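A quick aside before the break. I want you to see a complete sequence-to-structure record at least once, exactly as it would be stored in a machine-readable document. Don't worry about memorizing anything.
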Amino acid sequence: MALNLLKRHSMFARILQQPAIFTRNSATSEVSQVDPDEPVQIQNPFEKPRQLCILCKGNIEPNYKNVRLLSQFQSPYTGRIYGRHITGLCKGKQTKVEAEIVKAQDCGLMPTYKKLNEFLKDPQLFDPERPLRPHKY
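That is the input. The structure line, written in tokens, reads:
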């Protein structure tokens, strides 16, 4: 029993000798004790910043009436819609762009087999010859 009391006494003596750090929450004016042995939360210095797609950066919603924008995501020779690995769009915007291109083609605003000649000289949003993620063959 005496040994047990000595262990408790030495444990409490060590706790009392450690300096306590107190912080005050200004919103609730509560005082809380912070343990100096807790790990410090820091940001990962090797974490890359999150990449946004072209349309998310500009907060642009694709619309079937905006044929000039939609024609950027269509091949000028075959009319084929470029994939995500070429355009660099996020998954949600890519599906919206594909749906809006099909809707514009059904309405007769866009041709299905080639790009309109008036849009051929528009500046490119991406280079189809150099995809962001190359394919396997």
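Two observations worth writing down. The mean pLDDT is 81. The chain is about 35% helix and 5% strand. We'll return to this after the break.
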